[in-house]
Amino acid sequence: MRRPPLPKLRRGGRKPVTPQAAAQQPTRKRPSLKRPSLKRPQLKLSSLKLIVPAAAAILVVVVLLGTCGADDDEKVSDTLDRFAQASREKDYQALCDELLSTSLVEQLRTADQPCEVVLRIGLSDVQNPTLEVGDVEIDGDEATAQVDSTAAGQQPLKTRILLVKEDGDWRISSLPDEQGPSAVP
């Protein structure tokens, strides 16, 4: 009679488990490596009908708040600062293309001369101009700025400059010398 061979030992010195012994041992659950599925809640059409107008209303409020108030005051002052700088640097192209309103550019343009040439001729004797911005009043798409302007060899001028909003940018719609001195308290 032959004896059945002994089962080989597994690594680590543990005895191998026979199929009969495995059936008698309690089973141990292994942790699941699968991630739980994330189900997105299904929005009903009636919910979307409420969400879309609410989101649109919030967007309109944010846009309106972002384009008014003190921010516009700063933008008007920035436009006037850039106007003074372009005048000092005699950058007539920037004045006509970026800082003056469309209607003012049309007023300055003559039949045979573009805006840049008219400004070059008109401002040729102005040296080292400065512009100090005072109070700014905004009424919708129009603004009025109190300014003190000076230039070398010229009398200081206290005046108002009118600006309009074109395509979201503030542009100058009147030049200081057009209005003359104003009685600003």
Short overview:
The protein is α+β, with helices and mostly antiparallel strands and 185 residues long. It has helices at residues 19-24, 45-66, 70-88, 92-99, 102-108, 115-122, 176-179; strands at residues 130-139, 142-150, 157-166, 169-172. The protein has a 4-stranded antiparallel β-sheet with strand order 1-2-3-4, covered by helices on one side.
What keywords describe this structure?
alpha+beta; 4 strands; 40% helix; rod-shaped; 4-stranded antiparallel beta sheet; 185 residues; single chain; disordered C terminus
Can you count the beta strands?
Answer: 4
Form type = rod-shaped
Round the Cα radius of gyration to an integer and report it.
39 Å
Give the fraction of residues assigned to helices: 40-55%
Low-pLDDT runs:
46-68, 178-185
What would you call the structural class? alpha+beta
- β-strand percent reads 15-25%
Q: In order across it, which strands form the biggest sheet? A: 1-2-3-4
Biggest sheet character? 4 strands, antiparallel
Can you count the helices?
A: 7
Characterization of this structure:
It contains seven helices and four strands, in the order ααααααββββα. The radius of gyration is 39 Å and the shape is rod-shaped. The chain is α+β, with helices and mostly antiparallel strands. Strands 1-2-3-4 form a four-stranded antiparallel beta sheet, with helices on one face. The protein starts with 18 loop residues before the first helix and ends in a 6-residue tail after the last helix. The longest helix is centred in the N-terminal third of the chain and has 22 residues. Strand 3 and strand 4 form a beta hairpin.
